[in-house]
Design a protein that fits this description.
285 residues, alpha/beta, 10 helices
Length: 285
C-alpha cells in the first residue's frame, strides 16, 4: 500500500540524489517571495535568548496575534506549527468521528486516526471542479462530529463562501468545525472564521505565508474552554524564542503581506497560462 506523506522532505531527496542534480521542490506550498528581508537581522539580534528557556506562555506573541486579529487572547493558542495543534485537537475534543473532504492535507486523516476517531471522507469530484458541496457535508454530519475543512483547501485551492460555512456551523451546534486557514493570508478577499461561533476552531499557519517552515510557527483560535484544554495537553516550550520573535515582527509587516498577495496573484495567473500550452493538461482554476 502506498503511504503518502507531507511534502518538503528535501533531506530525503538529497540523500538519494547521487548525481548531485539541482533540486526544484514542488512538494510544499511556500511563499515564493522568500522570508522577509528583516529575518536574518532579527534572528541575529535575538540569538542571545537561546541561552534561556523561551516564554512558555508565548505572551508577547499571543498579544501580537490579538492585536493583529482583534481576537481575545484567551482564545488563542500558539504552537510549533499548526500541525502540532491538529494532533492535539483530535485527542481532546469530545467527538466520535472526523468528517473530512478529500483530497486534502494528508495529516487530517492521520491525526484523526491517532486520536481514535472514526474517519469518514467525502470525495471532491473532478467533474464538479473539486468544489466542496455543502449540501453533501450537511447530509453527512452526525452529532459529535469534527468537520474538517480547508479554507482554501490544500491541494485543490478551492474555497467556500464564508457566510455559508458559518451558517452550516451554527446549524449543527453539537458538532465542531475546524477550518484550516493555513493559506487564507494569500487571498486578498480572505475573511477568517476565527471566533465566529462556539463550535468553530481555526488553524492559522505562519510558516507558509512568511516562508519560514524551518522555524515552525502557527496558532489556533478556539472557544475559551477548548483553548484551555489544548494548552493543558501541549508540552511546554513548544515555540522557541526565535520563532516567537519572528511571529511578532511578521504580524506587524503589512508591506510584506501586501507584496506577497500581489506577487502570488500574478504568478498564479502566469503559471495557469503557461500550463495551458500543454494540450495534455486540463487546468482547474
Amino acid at each position: 500500500m502506498k503511504i503518502f506523506e507531507h511534502g518538503g522532505n528535501i533531506y530525503n531527496v538529497a540523500r538519494k540524489n547521487k548525481q548531485g542534480r539541482k533540486i526544484l521542490d514542488f512538494s510544499a506550498n511556500i511563499n515564493p517571495l522568500g522570508p522577509p528581508e528583516w529575518l536574518r537581522g532579527l534572528l541575529s539580534s535575538t540569538l542571545e535568548k537561546v541561552a534561556h528557556y523561551p516564554d512558555p506562555d508565548n505572551l508577547e506573541f499571543i498579544q501580537a496575534i490579538s492585536e493583529h486579529t482583534g481576537i481575545n487572547e484567551e482564545c488563542i493558542v500558539a504552537a510549533n506549527g499548526t500541525t502540532e495543534l491538529l494532533y492535539v485537537i483530535s485527542r481532546v475534543l469530545s467527538v466520535k468521528r472526523a468528517l473530512i473532504p478529500v483530497p486534502s492535507y494528508i495529516d487530517y486523516v492521520r491525526a484523526a486516526n491517532l486520536g481514535g476517531l472514526k474517519v469518514v471522507t467525502l470525495n471532491l469530484l473532478e467533474n464538479e471542479g473539486f468544489q466542496l458541496r455543502l449540501d453533501k457535508v450537511r447530509s453527512s454530519i452526525q452529532q459529535d462530529d469534527l468537520v474538517v475543512i480547508g479554507t482554501p483547501n490544500n491541494p485543490t485551492g478551492t474555497s467556500c463562501d464564508r457566510e455559508q460555512l458559518l451558517s452550516l456551523a451554527r446549524e449543527f451546534p453539537g458538532s465542531f468545525f475546524m477550518f484550516d486557514e493555513a493559506f487564507l493570508d494569500f487571498s486578498d478577499e480572505g475573511l477568517s472564521l476565527a471566533a465566529c461561533a462556539q463550535n468553530i476552531i481555526t488553524l492559522n499557519s505562519m510558516t507558509k505565508f512568511y516562508a519560514v517552515p524551518g522555524l515552525r510557527l502557527g496558532y489556533g483560535v478556539f472557544p475559551p474552554a477548548i483553548a484551555d484544554l489544548v494548552r493543558e495537553n501541549l508540552p511546554p516550550w513548544t515555540v522557541n524564542s526565535l520563532a516567537q520573535a519572528v511571529g511578532i515582527k511578521a504580524l506587524q509587516d503589512g508591506d510584506y503581506q501586501q507584496r506577497t498577495r500581489q506577487l502570488c496573484g500574478k504568478l498564479r495567473v502566469d503559471l495557469t497560462e503557461m500550463l495551458r500550452s500543454f494540450p495534455e493538461l486540463h487546468i482547474f482554476e
